[in-house]
Design goal:
With about 400 residues, the protein is α/β, with parallel strands linked by helices. About 35% of the residues lie in helices and about 15% in strands. It has a domain of about 200 residues: Rossmann fold (3-Layer(aba) Sandwich). It starts with a strand and ends in a 14-residue tail after the last strand.
């Protein structure tokens, strides 16, 4: 069997749902999580079998939701490099600093992972088209994968989203709507436009269960790349938070399967000071976040005032012994430029927020300096040319 998917589970109450129908959220409105028969998966998903597989996202198919490989929609995503940052790490006082570079994925961001799995499963379940609000990058990725699968795509994004993401949607044939407002306004428009469309699925962040499954493969890859162990700390730029939820889920699955030895990593949610609801909630001891009055940051992917899965992000951070950090735009842009000078890497501002957060955590003493630390760069800096002055 290609997948060991058994059921979907309400992330708040644990209620079970049928995995073989098109699903949104649980009855209570909470995200649904895919669950697998890990006892069966363990017999097939071993270090030896993994070593013989292609270096792509689908190597973990036993714990991905697509049942028939004929429905896999791929553009070659997966197994992005885990790069040492010796000069920049030394400058920050964290010599064992590493960067997982998701900017090399199709469409230029980590959103390709969620799109690949989400679109593949939608195709398998007979969905005719996908619809979503986006801050830009997710819409570009889902539009591309929908085109690859032969599905329709309806995308709405704020006018302030990176211009290149609008062009990505347009060239792949998506129905694109640009709104004056934030991602919540785009979401309201999508819901209105979906009314009366049969066979279309709302694939907004955490309103379908399979984007997480694609994103969790970042965690699987990091552990494989480090020789079946986790780093001490993983910093993740947190907007909707799907990636950090997915990495936390991946670590639990790998531990249950016997594929991860040693301690689990401390997870750090990184936001920009102009939009830091998760950070505020973490330090207030709250279980959910409160939307800021005027959310703004140059790291546009972090402009998510109220994430549907905020309670899951907070759980992941707390259960792992991690923390949450907000950095000013000026600091993340300075970190972006310094990393490029030191290592030749032009990363996105969201990823640069994590690099800036390393400096904050080292200065505060939360990082002692001897830890192995992985920062997630979630996209290519080429998508954000306006963050760098022209020559």
């Amino acid at each position: 069997m290609w997948s060991t998917l058994s059921h979907l589970e309400c992330s708040r109450h644990g209620d079970a749902y049928d995995a073989d129908t098109v699903a949104g959220t649980a009855a209570c409105g909470a995200p649904l999580l895919a669950r697998y028969d890990l006892a069966r998966a363990a017999a097939m998903l071993t270090p030896a079998t993994l070593a013989a597989r292609a270096p792509d996202l689908w190597r973990y198919h036993e714990v991905l939701p697509v049942r028939d490989p004929a429905h896999v929609t791929t553009l070659g995503e997966g197994m992005t490099p885990l790069l040492a940052l010796p000069r920049h790490g030394a400058a920050l006082g964290v010599p064992r600093l590493l960067l997982k570079d998701e900017g090399l994925l199709p469409t230029g961001t980590f959103k390709a992972r969620g799109a690949a799995v989400g679109v593949s499963r939608a195709r398998e379940l007979g969905v005719r088209g996908i619809a979503m609000p986006t801050n830009g990058n997710a819409g570009a990725a889902w539009a591309a994968y929908a085109a690859r699968a032969g599905l329709g795509a309806l995308i709405a994004m704020p006018r302030d989203a990176p211009e290149i993401t609008r062009r990505e949607c347009t060239i792949t044939g998506a129905e694109l709507h640009v709104v004056d407002g934030l991602i919540g306004d785009a979401g309201a428009l999508v819901r209105r436009l979906l009314a009366g469309r049969t066979g279309w699925q709302d694939t907004a962040t955490l309103r379908e269960p399979y984007r997480i499954e694609g994103k969790k493969t970042m965690g699987w890859e990091i552990v494989e790349q480090l020789g079946r162990r986790a780093p001490d700390v993983i910093l993740y730029p947190t907007g909707g938070g799907v990636g950090i939820i997915g990495i936390h889920k991946a670590m639990a699955e790998m531990r249950a399967l016997g594929l991860l030895t040693g301690p689990l990593p401390r997870l750090v949610a990184v936001q920009a000071q102009g939009c830091a609801p998760i950070v505020d909630a973490f330090h207030a001891g709250a279980t959910e976040s409160v939307a800021p009055a005027d959310p703004r940051t140059v790291a546009f992917g972090l402009t998510v005032p109220k994430a549907l899965g905020d309670f899951l992000v907070l759980e992941a951070v707390r259960e792992s012994g991690g923390t949450a950090v907000a950095v000013p735009d000026a600091d993340l842009l300075a970190a972006q430029a310094a990393l490029a000078r030191d290592e030749g890497l032009w990363i996105c501002p969201e990823g640069a927020a994590c690099v800036a957060a390393v400096a904050v955590l080292r200065e505060s003493g939360w990082l002692a300096g001897d830890e192995e630390v992985v920062v997630l760069n979630t996209g290519s800096g080429l998508i954000y040319p306006e963050t760098v002055a022209g020559g």
